[in-house]
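The instructor's notes for this session suggest beginning with a concrete chain rather than abstract definitions. Hand out the sequence below and ask the class to guess, before any prediction is shown, which regions might be ordered.
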Amino acid sequence: MYQANHDRLTGLPNRHLLQDRLSRAIRLAERNQNQLAVLFLDLDNFKWVNDSLGHATGDQLLISVSRRLQAGVRASDTVARLGGDEFVVLLQQPAGHQELAIIAEKLIEIIEQPIVLGGYDFHTTSSIGISIYPEDGIDADILLKHADTAMYVAKASGKSGFRFFDPEMNRRAVARVEVERDLRRAIQEQEFELYFQPKFCLSTERLCGLEALIRWQHPRRGLVQPDDFISVAEETALIIPLGEWVIRAVCRQVVSWRDQNLFYGHRVAINLSLLQVESDAFVDTVERILEETGAPPRLIEFELTESMVLRNPGRSAKVLQRLRKLGIHLALDDFGTGYSSLSHLRQLPLDTIKIDRSFIQNIPNSGEDNQIVRMIVALGKSAQMIVVAEGVETKLQKDCLRALGCDFLQGFLFSRPVPRQELEPLLLRDNEKNACPPCVGCQQTLSEQVE
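After discussion, reveal the predicted structure:
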């Protein structure tokens, strides 16, 4: 009987026993006109622990967390493990929202304390969602569902935090489920298209590259922007097949433009997600797509964010080295937000750094941002990388960046993202100006074509 009601790894009550205790607690609370609370807790980035450090280390982490949770609540309360890295804490007769907030903060704090795993201090964080009987539900399944919903909101808000459930969360949760359902169908039906945002050379003011951006042609909602579905794709791992579609579509488009003599060595940049980079099959998939499409690797550039690279620098370096061997160019996006050092950059085979738009918006009015951009440009030049400024919207910003020595610019001042049909006339016009003196970035592209 004990084994049927308790988690084998941690010894905590399992889902079956939790359901029984929660149902009993609800009946008692109804009789006595009391409240009770359900705290749904999930460890942040637990998958990375399992994938990078092994399942044995992951099990040690779960055991340590379970003991800390038990020590952080009263003996009359219940701590259960639902499976994986999901835990539930059942609190009987809480004094109110303020006490629950204090308890949630306490649990987050004790979980964040270093845990010794494999001889090293390891830090983890957690996200907590809270539902309360009777205001958020009057049966066990609803209370668990609403606490789970609140937990996902907490995780999406930056992790290492907690949220109370509210009806608006439920509406958003239902909408999210609909997006996930439609997205699965869209990937099968290939309901996507590419938009492209040009990059321009500062010294020649000619088009020197493109960034590919995905759009979803929804059969009912029309054109859907990435902000409305990329986060769902990442949460559900649908970003893997979606990202593969983007890479294949870009490669095919590059070949088509080359065959039409519309291309003058412009690289097309593709944004990568963390799940793609952490996938063991990613580089092999890229190599297969290049072979299938015949796309020249030198005309493909992958953009990774600074936070992705810093997540696991050792693994990132290995993946990037393999991509570099294929001939693909590599760019570090959103640079300046993750506080990378020069030593970090030198360990990575990067060709380009893109200055985050948050630093571009206030130059030259902000002396501090102006100085940050100046340092980033100097850092990029010292590492022999091309420096791109994104989010350029005014001529004043352009002139300032020219004075600071930036290579390429990207932003609404020059062009918004446009579909292929609108971009091709620009490519044709630019092709006619190929005799203009090239900048550093153009020279690099041209020399590679000669090789």
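Then share the key points. The first strand starts at residue 36 and ends at 43. The CA atoms of residues 120 and 213 lie 41 Å apart.
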